[in-house]
Write a structure and sequence with these properties.
mainly alpha, 3-stranded mixed β-sheet, two-stranded antiparallel sheet
Length: 1420
């Protein structure tokens, strides 16, 4: 009865009953919980479950039990035994809940087709609408039991209350947090199964933080919150109160609110804006809040709630509920008092937006008050709250952009490192904390992949909106999946950058962190990092895709590029950071339109680089639209990022450090890889320097760049690097300096600080000038390194051509018959004309300014040229110092610097610089620069220096082509001293004599340069070294317009190039060789001989030498068999004289006939006599000499028989076998000679026909070594062999193989196989650098047949009738080389013919051995 009365009077008289129960349970002076009272209360609650009561348990019952529990009257453990569900039932519910979650995590979706419905009538599909609460986690329902089924069959007695849940709510309502935590600890998943408890927990937390809110939050924020609350009330009043019942506030109260400064600032002078939907209400009307009635309630969540519809204000009856709560008054208590209570609710703080707003305002106020400094307790509190509460709340917020914006307001106060630490923990640790987090990650990944599957060019924006919604709540998962997809599909990068436009600043900041993580190649914890490069300086596909995405993202969305620069500043401190440079390259290309410099700059681009801004921008305009310059907003943000913390200069210095480290790497990498790395770093430096010069104004650049002392003493930069960094700064100061106050005897005031600091640079920096400082003045060093091509050269033709192009467009606009006028409207035509006129005005202004700047520079140079060089210095030492300290270091920096070096050399000559021999300087450049370019420079450096050498060679070729231009350039008005020959010091007795280099001498000098370059290039091509060969082809392609010109040089280079193109196994070198071979073939028309190059007349072609007498044959032990009888002549051939058989040479005794000596008068007389036609009945001479040289007589007879015929044309005088003096091929109808008669006449040239074949190599094994190979001049003609007598053709081997007319070379005598001889000759030819070039007469038509008369044995220089005689040694050397080349080609061809002939004859012999064929031949 007492317990029932207490429950009924708990709202009105609970204080009395509590005191009475306390007195009832006292045991002496101490109060102990009553077990009987606990059991009675439990039985009372259980009676509703078992149907003993007619209704469900009232809320007062649970609140009464909670109050008794909070005051210690009853014990919680005794009461829980009677509450439902039981512990076993709760465990079953938890197990079912966990299984349901695991099944959804591990089960994938039905795929892309599962999102669409069935096909419609026309084959169209319609996407299924997503569920409204798709992102909400499922709430498991308790499983059905026998009791619940029985109650379900009787709805009147069904019990649906959850006693544990209601009792926990009651405990939280009365402020008993300890017992509520005990229940939640016992039932682990109670808060997840029953999420309604979360609101009671956050209701307590909202009350706890009120003291801290009042203490830390500024008054203006409090007033703003109050105003927003009042506006919400006014909006609700206008909604629920009918129009006729609305009562406005008095005018005085409205004016008072209007005068409030906070109200004025929020509403811009009007508290309530005009409402067009309610025209009857006057403007600025504030409705009067009706009087509300206070009602006491049992539900603690309604405490303080105002119900305007029922006009009630609710008040919780138990006013002592907050007496024992741990209030938060300081920031440290947020962690100690508040955070444990909030952990009871899990990661669902998004359900309490007002509480989050209060906490965020408190933490932001700590930063504004200056208390949250790095390392302080307040800072740690902010990080803890973000990690435990705010970031998890964002994940479960289901895409609430307002919540994300409020959290970003606090995150933005932290440093970049602190934010990255939070993002890293958020993306990895948080999503593994609970089963709900895992399910959230699985759902988000599934949604992101679904969006990315349908990403296309035409669907970018819609997919971007979907990704933006997902990124509002789970940016870590969205960006992780998105970046993985970009790495796998590189063509997705541009579309994804465009699809990221619907994201917040918070999402962009998270994206920057995850891009930084992906740039490192990370694949997650415990996995290996990806390889950034498969080949040297060739980044992997995934890294290139990420770099393109990053550049497009920073350009299109205009986000802060700090993550990229921070990553580069950290990575560039390591030597293996070369592969990461692609990030910087793509970033600069996308934002600034400055592409990475490669081996592809045209002459127009190089010349335009030294012009004004308009011409330069037009010449370097990117081809792709994505590489155009970004907007002004993006450029301004980039400038702020580079200026902040001195990022620009630090990044530039790190690039120079990386360049130095690549050249000093250990030898564990190949030369090719090292060169590739060095080239990439150098190109990146050029690109980044151009970006700084174009991004910042001259004044801004001066403020950005550190002083000389800082660069030299602190950063320890080399001399050339310091000069390269300071160059834009110095140039701007020179252009704005006042030239009126200049003193010609002193250096320019702008240059004096650098001149004074030059000794310190050369001492402390790694670059040492050395002894050049004693020969060249410091003023010259500074001038050379600080000027650019813009300062010393003005390409007038470039400006004039550009202006004329715009004028032509204007003329087309004015011409009504032009295509432009007929395609554009009148308004567009007028606009185009105005634009072209503006361009013309800009070009003319830049042209005039450029000429003024060049003239100002010329004035400075003219005033200081006498102080540049030491007058007593040696000419060679001065030139070497100038090359080593100035020209060579700068000519390898970039293409623009290389062309600048050329113009500076020519400028020094035109200025008639004292003590400088331009001729010696150019000779050193053209003679000594190529070896270092081929051996010591990388590919890019060799290409750049080839620009310098190619420009110099082009100018020398122009002077070579025009004698008048040569005299004008080299001598001027007989005042220029650069090309004088003698540099003798004048004395008292002898005046200084100026003798300039003549034009003919200049031709010889240019030929010497060509000859040295040819030898060097050929040697490099045949070296087999990949680095040298690649550099050689790079330089040759730059020289191709002007080199090679001499035909001999072309042949040497063609021979080496053809060998590489045909036999090289490395594909890259083979491609280069074939490409350059095409270049040589293309420039075939401009070739000339050496005599034409020197301006000399072409010499007459020399006559071929006489045949050399054969040596005596070696004795042979074989007996000579008798000759066969001569067969009758064939009826189809005309009657010819049949000479008798030759006398066989004795195998044991050589011939003693004196006529065997070719130098005797008898031989000369007999040779002269042979030229006459013999009668038919006259027999040939019968001595041994004549018997062994029947082939030579046969040739004479053949020539005499052709005397009555017409002379064939020159084109047909050479056979297809390549012989120069070979007769035409025999007809196909001629029968091939027998095998034993092929080498009988050894002085006849071979024919290309298959019937003219010499003895096979395998048949020469039994011959003496000196007779195995027969020169071409001593081989028989097939026609002469056929006309020979039968006895001669069938002679024994000893007779047939008589000594040849000319002994073969020792090399030919040693070679057994002609194929091996050909290979050996090719190797020797490629390994030996030619000591002399071909003679021009080699390209003339074939000469006449060899002379067999009295002049046959005379040397070429003593032949009668030879008016122009050449030196004997040079003639023999050239003839020997020609013979070797000709024999090599002929041996290869004849070897193939011999093989085919042997096979044919072997088959014929086999056929004759058959019995039937033998009988048939016998009958014949």
């Amino acid at each position: 009865m007492l317990l029932d009365m207490y429950i009924k009077q708990v709202m009105t008289n609970h204080v009395f009953w509590i005191e009475m129960f306390k007195e009832f349970t006292k045991n002496g002076s101490e109060m102990t919980p009553s077990t009987s009272l606990s059991q009675l209360m439990g039985i009372k609650i259980a009676s509703y479950r078992y149907g003993l009561e007619e209704s469900i348990a009232p809320l007062e019952l649970y609140v009464s039990a909670a109050i008794l529990t909070a005051h210690g009257v009853i014990q919680l453990a005794d009461l829980l035994f009677f509450l439902t569900p039981s512990l076993d039932e709760m465990l079953e519910d938890t197990k079912s809940y966990m299984e349901h979650m695991d099944k959804e995590i591990t089960t994938n979706s039905g795929g892309l087709l599962a999102q669409y419905g069935a096909l419609g009538d026309e084959g169209a599909t319609e996407k299924k609408p997503s569920k409204p609460n798709e992102e909400e986690l499922p709430v498991a329902t308790p499983p059905a039991t026998e009791d619940t089924e029985k109650k379900a069959s009787h709805p009147s007695v069904a019990y649906t209350a959850h006693d544990v849940l209601e009792f926990t709510k009651a405990l939280l309502s009365v402020g008993d947090i300890a017992h509520a935590q005990e229940i939640m600890a016992k039932y682990a998943k109670l808060i997840d199964l029953q999420p309604t408890l979360i609101h009671h927990i956050y209701h307590i937390c909202d009350y706890i933080v009120r003291p801290a809110y009042e203490h830390y939050v500024p008054d203006d924020l409090k007033a703003r919150k109050t105003i927003f609350a009042e506006r919400a009330v006014q909006s609700e009043l206008r909604t629920i109160i009918p129009l006729e019942d609305q009562v406005p506030l008095p005018v005085s109260d409205q004016q008072q609110q209007h005068d409030d400064p906070m109200v004025r600032s929020l509403s811009n002078g009007s508290y309530v804006q005009d409402d067009a939907s309610r025209p009857n209400l006057p403007p600025r009307t504030v409705l009067k809040i009706p009087k509300l009635k206070t009602v006491t309630v049992v539900d603690g969540m309604k405490d303080g709630v105002e119900d305007l519809v029922r006009r009630k204000r609710y008040k919780f009856f138990y006013t002592q509920w907050a007496d024992d709560l741990p209030m938060v008054t300081t920031c440290e208590e947020l962690v100690t008092n508040l955070l444990p209570i909030m952990r009871m609710a899990g990661f669902r703080m998004h359900l309490a937006p007002q509480l989050m707003n209060k906490l965020l305002q408190i933490l932001v106020a700590l930063f504004e008050r200056g208390e949250a400094t790095p390392g302080s307790k307040e800072r740690n509190v902010c990080l803890t709250m973000l990690r435990e509460c705010f970031l998890p709340a964002v994940s479960f917020s289901n895409g609430n952009p307002g919540l994300m914006a409020n959290v970003w307001e606090l995150l933005d106060k932290l440093s970049y490192q602190e934010r990255c630490a939070l993002y890293g923990e958020w993306g990895t640790v948080f999503y593994r904390r609970s089963i709900e987090c895992k399910l959230l990650k699985a759902r988000t990944e599934r949604s992101v992949k679904t969006v990315l599957r349908r990403m296309s060019k035409n669907d970018v924006r819609q997919c971007g909106r979907d990704l933006g919604k997902l990124a509002h709540s789970n940016p870590c998962i969205v960006f992780s999946v998105m970046l993985d997809q970009i790495q796998a599909f590189d063509n997705l990068a541009p579309y994804m950058a465009d699809g990221c436009r619907y994201m917040s600043n918070f999402a962009y900041d998270v994206l920057g962190y995850f891009m930084t993580e992906k740039w490192t190649g990370s694949q997650g914890p415990g996995r290996m990092k990806k390889q950034k490069a498969k080949e040297p300086a060739m980044p992997a596909t995934w890294l290139r895709a990420l770099s393109v995405f990053a550049g497009m993202l920073f350009k299109k969305q205009g986000i802060d590029p700090t993550p990229l620069f921070r990553y580069l500043l950290v990575r560039l401190r390591y030597d293996d950071a070369v592969d990461d440079l692609i990030l910087l390259n793509e970033f600069i290309t996308k934002l600034m339109g400055i592409e990475l410099v490669g081996d592809s700059l045209t002459d127009n681009q190089i010349s335009a680089a030294g012009c004004g801004g308009t011409l330069k921008s037009d010449a370097f305009l990117p081809v792709l639209l994505d590489n155009r310059r970004a907007t002004k907003r993006v450029i301004a943000r980039l400038k702020d990022t580079l200026v902040k913390d001195n990022v620009a200069i630090e990044l530039l210095i790190l690039l120079f450090r990386l360049q130095e480290s690549t050249s000093l790497k250990s030898m564990d990498i190949s030369t090719y890889e090292r060169c590739k790395h060095s080239d990439l770093v150098r190109k990146t430096i050029v690109q980044y320097s151009d970006m700084l010069a174009n991004l910042f104004d001259p004044d801004e650049y001066n403020e950005l760049i550190s002083s000389t002392d800082v660069l030299v003493n602190e950063y320890k930069l080399p001399f050339s690097t310091v000069m390269q960094i300071l160059r834009p700064k110095t140039q701007h100061q020179l252009r704005i300096a006042n030239d009126a106050d200049l003193d010609a005897s002193q250096p320019h005031p702008v240059l004096q600080p650098l001149i004074q600091a030059l000794p310190d640079m050369t001492k402390t920096a790694s670059y040492e000038i050395g002894s050049a400082g004693n020969i060249i003045s410091a003023e010259f060093f500074v001038l050379f390194w600080q000027l650019s091509i813009y300062d010393i050269h003005c390409p007038v033709h470039r400006y004039e051509a550009a202006i004329k192009a715009h004028q032509d467009v204007i003329a087309q606009c004015k011409d009504p018959r032009s295509n432009l006028s007929m395609t554009l409207r009148a308004s567009a035509l007028a606009k185009r004309e105005r634009q072209e006129q503006v361009s013309i005005d800009t070009l003319q202004a830049e042209f005039a300014k450029h000429k003024r700047d060049v003239q100002r520079t010329m004035t400075v140079l003219q005033a200081s040229k006498e102080r540049w060089f030491d007058a007593n210095a040696d000419r060679a030492q001065l030139v070497n110092a100038l090359l080593q300290s100035c020209l060579y270091p700068r000519s390898v920096l970039s293409e623009i610097d290389a062309v600048y070096c050329y113009h500076f050399v020519m400028l020094m000559h035109e200025m008639n610089t004292s003590h400088l021999s331009t001729l010696t300087l150019i000779d050193k450049i053209m003679s000594n620069s190529l070896p270092q370019a081929l051996l010591c420079l990388t590919e890019y450096e060799a290409y750049v220096q080839a620009q310098f050498l190619g420009s110099m060679l082009k100018r020398m070729t122009e002077l070579f082509a025009d004698e008048a231009l040569y005299k004008k350039v080299t001598r001027g008005d007989n005042e220029l001293i650069g090309f004088q020959r003698n540099w003798k010091v004048p004395t008292a007795d002898r005046a200084a004599e100026v003798v300039a280099l003549s034009f003919d001498e200049f031709r010889h000098l240019l030929l010497k340069w060509h000859k040295k370059a040819t030898d060097l290039f050929r040697q490099s091509l045949l070296s087999g070294e990949q680095h040298q060969i690649r550099n050689t082809f790079l330089i040759l392609r730059e020289f191709s317009p002007n080199f090679p010109i001499v035909r001999d040089h072309v042949d040497l280079l063609m021979q080496a190039t053809r060998a590489l193109a045909d036999h090289e196994k490395r594909n890259d070198l083979k491609v280069l060789a074939r490409s350059y071979r095409g270049v040589l073939d293309k420039n075939k028309a401009r070739r000339m001989s050496r005599f034409a190059f020197l301006g000399l007349p072409e010499p007459a072609p020399p006559r071929p030498p006489a045949p050399v007498a054969p040596p005596r044959p070696k004795p042979s032990s074989r007996p000579t068999p008798p000759s066969r009888p001569t067969p009758p002549a064939r009826p189809t051939q005309p009657a010819r004289p049949t000479p008798p058989a030759r006398r066989a040479v004795s195998p044991t005794r050589p011939s003693s006939n004196p006529s065997s000596n070719p130098s005797t008068p008898q031989d000369r007389t007999s040779t002269t006599t042979d030229r006459k036609r013999r009668p038919r009945d006259q027999a040939p001479p019968s001595n041994g000499r004549e018997a062994s040289t029947a082939g030579a007589n046969g040739r004479a007879q053949k020539r005499l028989r052709s005397d009555t015929m017409d002379t064939p044309p020159a084109s047909s005088s050479t056979s297809s076998s390549g012989g120069r003096h070979a007769p035409p091929s025999s007809p196909a109808s001629h029968r091939a000679p027998p095998r034993d008669t092929r080498d009988r006449n050894n002085d006849a040239p071979p024919s290309s026909s298959a019937s003219s074949r010499r003895q096979s190599p395998r048949d020469t094994r039994d011959l003496p070594r000196d007779t195995r190979e027969t020169p071409r001049e001593t081989r028989e003609s097939p026609r002469e062999t056929r006309d020979a007598p039968r006895e001669t053709r069938d002679a024994p081997r000893e007779t047939r193989d008589a000594p040849p007319a000319a002994r073969p070379s020792p090399r030919d005598a040693r070679v057994r196989n002609p194929a091996q001889a050909a290979i050996r000759d090719a190797v020797k030819d490629t390994a030996r650098v030619s000591k002399s070039a071909r003679r021009p007469e080699d390209d003339r038509p074939p000469s006449k047949p060899p002379v067999t008369g009295a002049n046959a044995t005379l040397p070429p220089s003593r032949k009668r009738g030879n008016e122009e005689r050449r030196p004997e040694r040079q003639d023999k050397r050239g003839r020997h080389e020609r013979d070797e080349r000709r024999d090599h080609e002929q041996r290869r061809e004849e070897h193939r013919d011999d093989r085919r002939g042997d096979n044919d004859r072997r088959r014929e012999n086999d056929r004759r051995e058959r019995p039937d064929v033998r009988r048939r031949l016998g009958r014949r």
